[in-house]
Amino acid sequence: MPSDKKRALVVIQLAGANDALNTIIPYTNGLYYDFRPNISIAAEDVLPINEELGFNPNLEPIKALWDRGKVAVINGIGYPKPDRSHFRSMDIWHTAEPTTVGKEGWLGRVIRELDPNGDNVLTGVNFGRGLPRSLALRGVPVASVGNLATYGLFPEVDDTARKQNVLDAFGKMYGGDVKDEVMAFLGQNGRDALHGADILRTAPEQYTSTVEYPENPIAQNLKGVAQVMFAELGTQIYYTTYGSFDTHGGELIAHTKLWQDVSGAMSAFYQDLEEHGWENDATVLIWTEFGRRIRDNGTGTDHGSGGSAFVIGGAVQGGLFGEYPSLRPEDQLEGDLHFNNDFRSTYSTLAERWFGLEPAPIVNGHFEQFEFLTA
């Protein structure tokens, strides 16, 4: 295929609700240690950002990118009338619809705007099983890849003619004469998926790199993202999910391992971007559905409200965005961190300042934007 280098957004969902308070830590605030006698991070272990906040020590690779000005930390992110249900809160973030049950994924709408005629069935690619609701939109094809090395239309069949016979049969089953609307929709999605499958499978064959990715799922998924990105197939939206960050118990052990994996994967991916000259053309958004309670429950934390998100890339203007929520009892939201900025502000910033799109139809409204992108 011809080269098609376009700006890319890589979205990493931390499923299960990452504990913001143990990620960006108010290490000089005595209330933090009062409320978390069992799972707090010692002040001497925190990686300082300033005299009040610092990174969890397991985010050291991300802190290194912060020191280079490549990381925006968005504190207090959330939405009005927070819902502590994983399913409802994820649905809100996926659809940008906090007040009603949304039917369209916000990234599905981004893909539709980027490729309104559906010319490229690979404008959006998910790395993982299933299809996240963020990407779901009728008429918008999205490839979902479990293992890029074995992905494709009958990869064990090398004969082009035999594969074409399968495609022809599929086309007859779900052709233009199909009257059932649902069957026609499924058929179109199926044909789009089949069309993109073998194209994606060529990406690893074109990939060379000196970067060694860790052997864990999030790192290997980001390696797959890099392979597709560097093949320049015109993909602009990449998605992957990692977790579970639902640390009701054993948080110090689980949270440590999870962030070691994510940070190490992010470091390798950024090195790969730089090696291939993509660091200024790819931006990463890391999000989670909500934060966790201020008080620990013994060995973990329960579902909360305000959280944190990260935007990382060569075009990112690093810094702290959003006010860090107060821990004072009178400022808490029923024991949670208050949100102070709507997640749709972050979405709007990415839609308009990264892709040049009108954000209101994508995020269902007008929201103040951040200054975390340089161009």
Question: Can you tell me about this structure?
Answer:
Helix content is 34%, strand content 14%. With 375 residues, it is an alpha/beta fold. It has one domain: Alkaline Phosphatase, subunit A, CATH 3.40.720. Helix 2 crosses helix 9, helix 5 packs antiparallel against helix 6 and helix 8 runs parallel beside helix 9. The longest helix has 25 residues. The two termini are 29 Å apart.
Notable features of this structure?
375 residues; alpha/beta; Alkaline Phosphatase, subunit A; nine-stranded mixed β-sheet; three-stranded antiparallel β-sheet; 11 helices; 12 strands; globular
The portion of residues forming beta strands comes to: 5-15%
> Can you tell me the CATH architecture?
3-Layer(aba) Sandwich
- CATH topology type: Alkaline Phosphatase, subunit A
| DSSP strand tally | 12
Q: Indicate the percent of residues in helices.
A: 25-40%
CATH class: Alpha Beta
Q: What value does the Rg take, in angstroms?
A: 21 Å
* Poorly predicted residue ranges: none
Largest sheet, if any? 9 strands, mixed
Shape: globular
SSE arrangement, N to C: EEHEEHEHHEEHHHHEHEEEEHH
End-to-end C-alpha gap: 29 Å
Structural class: alpha/beta
| Average pLDDT for all residues | 91
Q: Count up the helices.
A: 11
Total domain count: 1
Pfam family, one: DUF1501
InterPro entries: DUF1501 (IPR010869)
Protein name: DUF1501 domain-containing protein
